[in-house]
Design goal:
This protein is α/β, with parallel strands linked by helices and about 300 residues long. The protein is built from twelve helices and eight strands. An eight-stranded mixed beta sheet has the order 1-2-4-3-5-6-7-8, sandwiched between helices. The termini are far apart.
Length: about 300
């Protein structure tokens, strides 16, 4: 794999907090904003993946740490939510009071675009980042050139749940020492990648775990993000009015957000195209990069040629 020169990370004031970000590609190229998932830092968008996406699509690819993760603002003063209590309230149909919700995190994206002087951008969101993208489609469609939703869900009731193993990954606290965190990270991604083996990715787990650990963990922030997901509920009815050109990418072997959830996203957004990728779990494995990058690049190029479709 070709080495990518280190990025210059910056911190920018956006929506009342600071967001850490960096970018790939020509600063004057059409912007593409990557939005990552629950508890995942911006480096979960691999450097080489971002560089490939910038080159293939002719984009300025921007990635950032969501609030409460990585080098962005940690909202420690908001306390740690009781996730079990919130889940019980959600199952009982009760309204949830949480430190923030996904609409607030979508406003962070808009604030970052504002700070960078970007009027409209292509948005690509993975997992929770896809759900944040749904909120952008609902509340800020005028800021979007196109949308790609990867391994995400509308939050509609009745969709298949995660496997027990994937649910265990979600609720297992991260160890506080690197010696314990390394095997924890490797075990988690073995589950999330699904039943197929991906030796190229597994060979890099130690390197990726060290990068994430050194940038800093924030378990309380992950709990607040999870509370935001629970509080945001079912987006499917609102998405039926979305008019953003949308591509949905989902793996057939996703143990955390089953592929039926991706089918549901594509069904919810008018005109959305669905790409199902065999063997792909809840991850972006290196062997699938060419297919994913090509699909996103074709989608954004089509949008540029046909802005009203």
């Amino acid at each position: 794999m070709t080495a990518v020169p280190p990025r210059v990370e910056q911190r920018t004031r956006a929506n009342g907090i600071e967001l850490a970000w960096d970018s790939f590609g020509d600063a004057g190229a059409p912007p593409l904003l990557l939005v990552m998932g629950l508890g995942a830092q911006m480096v979960a968008w691999d450097d080489a993946f971002c560089a490939r996406l910038a080159e293939a699509g002719g984009h300025r690819v921007i990635r950032f740490d969501n609030r409460d993760i990585g080098h962005s603002t940690h909202l420690s003063h908001l306390g740690v939510p009781d996730i079990q209590a919130l889940m019980a309230q959600a199952m009982a149909g009760q309204p949830l009071r949480t430190p923030y919700n996904l609409r607030d995190m979508a406003a962070d994206c808009v604030g970052l675009l504002d700070a960078l002087g970007i009027a409209r951008a292509h948005i690509v969101g993975a997992s929770m980042g896809g759900a944040i993208g749904h909120e952008l489609c609902i509340h800020h469609p005028h800021r979007m050139l196109s949308f790609t939703s990867i391994m995400s869900t509308t939050g509609a009731p009745g969709l298949p749940p995660p496997t027990p193993e994937a649910m265990a990954v979600l609720f297992t606290p991260s160890p506080t020492t690197f010696e314990a965190y390394l095997p924890h990270y490797a075990r988690a991604w073995r589950v999330l990648r699904g039943p197929s083996d991906f030796p190229l990715d597994e060979a890099r787990d130690a390197e990726k775990a060290q990068l994430v650990f050194l940038r800093g963990l924030n378990p309380a922030g992950v709990a607040r993000q999870l509370a935001a997901i629970l509080a945001s509920g079912n987006r499917k009815p609102a998405l039926r009015d979305a008019r953003v050109p949308t591509l949905v990418i989902h793996g057939d072997a996703d143990p955390l957000v089953p592929v039926a959830c991706g089918v549901d996203v594509a069904d919810a957004i008018p005109g959305a195209q669905l790409l199902r990728i065999p063997r792909m779990g809840h991850a972006l494995p290196i062997p699938m990069w060419p297919q994913i990058v090509d699909a996103i690049s074709a989608h954004t190029a089509h949008t540029a040629r046909h802005p009203n479709t």
